[in-house]
Amino acid sequence: MVAFRQLVKNSSINLKDVAMKKINFALLMAAIFIAALSINLSCDKLDASPCTGKGTLTLTNKSLTTVQRIMINGVNYGSLDPGNKKSIELTPGTYDWQLVGLSGGTGCSAAKVNIVACEDQGYSCSGK
Fold this sequence. Notes:
single chain; 128 residues; Immunoglobulin-like; 2 domains; four-stranded antiparallel sheet; rod-shaped
């Protein structure tokens, strides 16, 4: 009888060990799955490029009082109030740009800019 109790006692310990190993294995697999999922999501974010093949020209009006008209290759792209800036997407290439004073100020002289895909070129004009 004592031998039987000892056998049962040893068997129950082994069953507990087996159960714990199964639980540990399940937790390990869940952790690996979560890690793989998060890595996959991170890679998806890295692969998503915001570049559309165009470049950006960002112009800032640093004048205190003069509203300035945005001219690019002779085309009016709107106006900038004092202290404001505007970003314009352009296809890669060379452009002539100018901020022309509208409300009494002088604006700035024309200048050339080389637009490169996926890059931002920034300029400012204080006018007088």
